[in-house]
Amino acid sequence: MLTYYSDDHHLHHGKCELIDGQLMPCFEKPQRADHILARVNNRQLGEVRAPRDFGLAPIERIHSKAYLEFFKSAWARWQEQGGKGDLLPFTWPARTLRRMIPNDLHGQLGYYSFDGGAPITAGTWQAAYSAAQVALSAQQEIANGAHSAFALCRPPGHHAAGDVMGGYCYLNNAAIAAQAFLDQGRKKVAILDVDYHHGNGTQDIFYQRSDVLFASIHGDPAEEFPFFLGYADELGEGAGEGYNFNYPLPMGSSWEAWSAALEQACQRIAEYGAEVVVVSLGVDTYMEDPISQFKLDSPDYLAMGRRIAALGLPTLFIMEGGYAVEAIGVNAVNVLEGFEGA
Q1: Nearest residue to 162 (alpha-carbon basis) of 55, 99, 237, 71
Q2: Does Membrane count among this protein's keywords (predicted)?
Q3: Helices (H), the chain
Q4: Could you give the CA distance from residue 311 to residue 49 in angstroms, rounded to a whole number?
């Protein structure tokens, strides 16, 4: 399987995130992608290529120009103000406040963020931009006839909506790739999100559309981040009604419960008649993940890959979460090897 990867991800290395009432070292760190790349090479999964540059146009198909302009310029503005350390929001437009875009940098950051888990550093824009190009390059391989490809993206993307960052995510790589498939002539794309946390950004982007089916298996948002999206009764709106499927599972769920949800999601994808599948590949479902509460073990990821392969569809894997750094390479590559060996 061909892998696309960019060293630019090292440019994004946040010092801290707001979690559990404290500013803590970021769980989302460069070593995550480094371990996956090492495993790809050690297992001789296939060639690793640098991405092509497709420019901003395919990113603007998903993200608003105002949001992109803010994101691109935020660090420079922070430095002009004499800012020190990472740029993190400290206020948000809550339910009782107006949803307007202030002139102030911090007001805009709060408007374009939904949590304190997406620090902006000197290299964050370039890292996120390059991650989107990694996804687009792998997408183009499948558009050109490849049956599968792996986009080793970092930072991840599935929590980012059209004009909102959060949850370690800035640009929604899976959504950008799915839209590229549609723009190149595909009529029906499925996104299967297997990350422990619900892909709230991806759902929001496609919630009123029927050309992308979104299916997500994740921790129950009644007790897990992102809390405010990912419930089973969210089925889409308008033209998108009936094309959004969430499978929230309780803390402590093992492979038996998780795989049953995967079977339901795969059946939905098959019934939909998808022409291609984009997998938001998070492996924070692992039993030793430090911020997640499922109990999947490394061999389970081989079985996951085999079930996805059974769909018989061209499949683009895009890396999302997974924070047990020593195991992330094994688990991510197990999915890919299970897919290829099916």
Answers
A1: 71
A2: no
A3: 31-42, 57-60, 65-80, 105-111, 124-143, 173-183, 200-206, 255-272, 298-309, 325-341
A4: 26
- By residue count, the chain amounts to 342
Q: What's the rounded Cα separation, in Å, for the pair 35 and 329?
A: 5
Going from N- to C-terminal start, the domains of the chain cover 3-52+123-341
- The CATH code of domain 3-52+123-341 reads 3.40.800.20
Cβ partners under 8 Å of residue 97, min gap 6: none
Q: What is the DSSP string of 173-210?
A: HHHHHHHHHHHTT-S-EEEEE-SSS--HHHHHHHTT-S
Q: Do the strands 212-219 and 244-249 form a parallel or antiparallel pair, or are they unpaired?
A: parallel
Residue 278 Rama label (left phi>0; alpha psi -120 to 50; beta): beta
Asked if residue 159 lies in contact with residue 200, where contact means CB atoms within 8 angstroms, the answer is yes
pLDDT tens for each residue of the chain, 342 residues long = 999 999 999 999 999 998 888 899 999 999 999 999 999 999 999 999 999 999 999 999 999 999 999 999 999 999 999 999 999 999 999 999 999 999 999 999 999 999 999 999 999 999 999 999 999 999 999 999 999 999 999 999 999 999 999 999 999 999 999 999 999 999 999 999 999 999 999 999 999 999 999 999 999 999 999 999 999 999 999 999 999 999 999 999 999 999 999 999 999 999 999 999 999 999 999 999 999 999 999 999 999 999 999 999 999 999 999 999 999 999 999 999 999 996
Among this protein's residues, is 159 annotated catalytic? yes
Q: Which of 35, 159, 197, 218 is catalytic?
A: 159
Residue pair 141/315 in contact (Cβ under 8 Å)? The answer is no
Among candidates 164, 170, 216, which has minimal Cα distance to 190?
216
